[in-house]
Amino acid sequence: MSYVATFDAGTTAVKAALTDDDGGIVASCSSDAMPLFTGDGHQEQDPRDWWRAFLQTAHAMLAQAARSVPEFDPASILGIIMSGQMQDVIALDEQLNPVRRTMLYSDGRADREARELAEIVGGESFHKLTGNQLEGSLPLLKLMWFKRHEPQNFAKTRHVLFDAKDYLIAKLTGALVADVVASSTVGAMDIRQRAWSSSLIDAADMDEALFPALHNPEDRVGEVTSQAAELTGFALGTPVFAGIGDAGATTLASGVTEPGEYNINIGTSGWIATVSPEPITDRAGVANLARTTAGGARNDVSSGVSSSVINGVPFLNAGNVHHWITSVFAGNGGDQTHSDEDRDGEGTSSGVDYDHMGEMLARSTPGSNGVLCLPYLSGERFPVMNASIRGAYVGLSADTTAADMARAALEGVAFSIRQGLETFDAEPSEITLIGGGAREHVWCQIMADVLGHSIEVFRNADVMPAAALSFLVHYALGRFASLDEATARLRACRDSVTYEPDGETVRLYDAVYSRYRALYPAINGLG
């Protein structure tokens, strides 16, 4: 038996899973929570904390495998592949040491720089070239901020990476690489050519030599060095693959391959993903990512140029809303720094009683007895792009219960997701749901009723991304003739339950949705 070691470098933890030839999990673990540094609207992490978390999970995973598999040998690991949080700015010096803390994807400090670049290149031209709108959370803009506000640190910078996993790859191999999926969110990549745009980099007054080499996710980019082998427990020379940004990994795991197939991901934040032949650039709020493709030669980043893209609508408010209502209405306090992506599956997480909330929701009624909730706890990126907007309740009365308020918040998130789906042209043929929020059964039914469509929810959602990553390695090594074949194999691994919409409730929600659409304009006008 051979194995693949997979990792996910998230914001709150690094997760590890060792998979067998069939994508089954042999060993898995998660690191301790990692510090998040905030202030003045900034969101930062120390990449050295990612490395410490990686070492913790690597040791625990290998130890677990040694206990469960007779005569387990790390040399039987075919490769290491990772997913990770995208849209970061990770500045490194000549020795690949961090120059400063990482500016995270959620850090939108570079609004001034976005306006300046828009004047130089034009917002519409930027959108068409990159597939994404020009706004202050993009790494290219945050690099401009970095150069302006911290010139001494910028002068020490010799390399910049944009995904947490790529820093871990550098620590394992010494290679400075990026995958084309995650790099789509940098603001410096031509999405059709799948290459860095010299014109954009020059316009930002940056040196292209700072930028990493671009690869397809399935490309072998290096191998474990002797120093990394000693630190991690992996065998010297174990192949390391480029991997894929977290949004791409969940899309791949969901099996979305055709227009009309949609995947909803409910972690702390949310995401709707589908695919189309070309980037969607004629409407606000839609992000476009280069898609790892089924055609072309392996290890050729240009294979499949312009063949298809992942279209996504990102939401800042999703599982964090579920966590908030559980903390406030289920009566258990709770740690506000964690939410659905950290949920351990059953019962509680970080002192938050999800079972109690599930019981409360089970007693609630569709429409929440007339209560509406605008669920913008953290500002929002879609259906509005407004970092300052905050949430609100409308329709409270003396008869309103905690269950009404809790349900209204989840209905609000579902209405936002409906708005997201309405931005796409293709009618839904399949909708799947993945992420920690998918464990709340009442919420899954709310989704089906609000969207008026059956929802397939993965029971083994924690397993699917690891299986998807491992099948990328098997594809790279020739086990599958194409990624389509690997995706078909992944679909066969699904363990899911389907929620069907109730006709009467669908009609009720159609009426409530019309009222919901009027909430943001009314609330925003108060500011």
UniProtKB/TrEMBL annotation:
Pfam families: FGGY_C, FGGY_N. GO terms for molecular function: kinase activity; phosphotransferase activity, alcohol group as acceptor. InterPro entries: ATPase_NBD (IPR043129), Carb_kinase_FGGY (IPR000577), Carb_kinase_FGGY_CS (IPR018483), FGGY_C (IPR018485), FGGY_Carb_Kinase (IPR050406), FGGY_N (IPR018484). The keyword Transferase applies. Residues 3-252 form the Carbohydrate kinase FGGY N-terminal domain. PANTHER family: SUGAR KINASE (PTHR43095), XYLULOSE KINASE (PTHR43095:SF5). Belongs to the FGGY kinase family. This is Gluconate kinase. It comes from Bifidobacterium tibiigranuli. The lineage of its organism: Bacteria, Bacillati, Actinomycetota, Actinomycetes, Bifidobacteriales.
